[in-house]
């Protein structure tokens, strides 16, 4: 509903925007009134005739985080519960007949042996796009990187060259829906995202999340957007290029509690302890520095902490 309201806003349709925003708020209120389990600190999956389901899932709680249904003060309780490794269990199991690789697999419910009071339904790889998006939305980038390294890393360790449908290999071993790390690492860690329709303006906002470097290419309708950054205790260095007919803003993040002291764009000073260099469009942002790039071409920004 919120996204539909946003689309209405973009086309300047005020009545539909208000309608869908209102519906979204009603839904948010209803979910909090009817599905929040205060004792366990999580949302349950259902409320049937006023009786709360006991089942808790990563899926439902991730969506509540992603769409701001959960108030900020609830986040830590939700995260602690749904990422408790002792609680996580699948609720279905895939079975593949012994035949050719074209044989379809079937799903077997594990509901009868699932402890709804003590366990959490684990999201499978094909749903993890939304779990990872929720973590990024609330700023849990280190947890996001740890999930990718741990869960998809196990696929690689097992010899996989494509992403699996489930965390075990009983189902499809080549499942496009499970390839969300390709998007997550490019969008959240490398930091590229569109700001305006058609990528006429885009942002590069890296989230190192404990990593020392990242490089990649974000494909856009305006052309490929290559980015490479390297982070150390004293310096953050980022380079890339701005495609034709686009502009960009590049954010140099703070490092822990250390703010950016100075920054150079293509060798020219653009920031020094709050002083802005000649001709530069620079702004402080939460201890970091945002540099505006108004024309196509390559750039290199080097910042010191």
Please give the count of helices: 7
Shape descriptor reads globular
Strand order of the largest sheet: 11-12-13-20-15-16-17
Query: How many E-type strands?
Result: 20
CATH-defined fold name of the largest domain: Glycosyltransferase
CATH hierarchy: architecture of the largest domain = Alpha/alpha barrel
Radius of gyration: 22 Å
Helix content: 25-40%
Tell me, rounded to a whole number, the average pLDDT: 92
Q: Count up the domains.
A: 2
Biggest β-sheet strands, sense, barrel: 7 strands, antiparallel
**Series of H and E elements:** HHEEEEHHEEEEHHHEEEEEEEEEEEE
Terminal-residue CA separation: 42 Å
Q: Any overview of this molecule?
A:
The protein has two domains: 38-183, Glycosyltransferase, CATH 1.50.10; 191-304, Maltose phosphorylase, domain 3. With 305 residues, the protein is of the alpha+beta class. The strands form six sheets. Strands 11-12-13-20-15-16-17 form a seven-stranded antiparallel β-sheet, with helices on one face. Helix content is 28%, strand content 29%. The longest helix has 22 residues, at 14-35. A hairpin with a 4-residue loop joins β1 (36-37) and β2 (42-43).
């Amino acid at each position: 509903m919120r996204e539909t309201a946003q689309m209405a806003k973009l086309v300047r349709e005020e009545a539909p925007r208000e309608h869908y925003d209102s519906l979204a708020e009603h839904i948010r209120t209803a979910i909090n009134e009817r599905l929040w389990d205060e004792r366990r600190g999580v949302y349950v999956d259902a409320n049937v005739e006023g009786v709360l389901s006991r089942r808790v899932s990563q899926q439902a709680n991730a969506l509540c985080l992603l769409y701001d249904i959960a108030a900020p003060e609830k986040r830590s309780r939700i995260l602690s519960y749904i990422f408790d490794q002792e609680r996580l269990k699948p609720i279905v199991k895939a079975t593949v007949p012994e035949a050719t690789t074209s044989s379809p697999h079937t799903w077997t419910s594990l509901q009868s042996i699932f402890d709804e009071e003590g366990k959490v339904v684990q999201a499978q790889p094909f749903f993890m796009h939304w779990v990872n998006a929720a973590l990024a939305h609330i700023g849990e980038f280190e947890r996001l990187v740890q999930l990718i390294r741990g869960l998809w890393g196990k696929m690689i360790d097992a010899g996989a060259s494509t992403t699996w449908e489930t965390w075990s290999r009983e189902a499809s071993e080549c499942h496009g829906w499970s390839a969300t790390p390709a998007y997550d690492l490019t969008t959240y860690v490398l930091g590229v995202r569109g700001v305006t329709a058609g990528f006429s303006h885009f942002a590069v906002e890296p989230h190192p999340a404990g990593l020392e470097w990242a490089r990649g290419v974000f494909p856009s309708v305006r052309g490929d957007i290559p980015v490479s950054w390297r982070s150390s205790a004293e310096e953050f260095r980022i380079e890339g290029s701005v495609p034709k007919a686009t502009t960009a803003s590049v954010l140099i993040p703070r490092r822990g509690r250390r703010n950016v002291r100075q920054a150079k764009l293509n060798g020219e000073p653009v920031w020094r302890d709050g002083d802005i260099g000649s001709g530069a469009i620079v702004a402080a942002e939460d201890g970091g520095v945002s540099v505006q790039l108004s024309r196509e071409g390559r750039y290199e920004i080097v910042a010191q902490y």
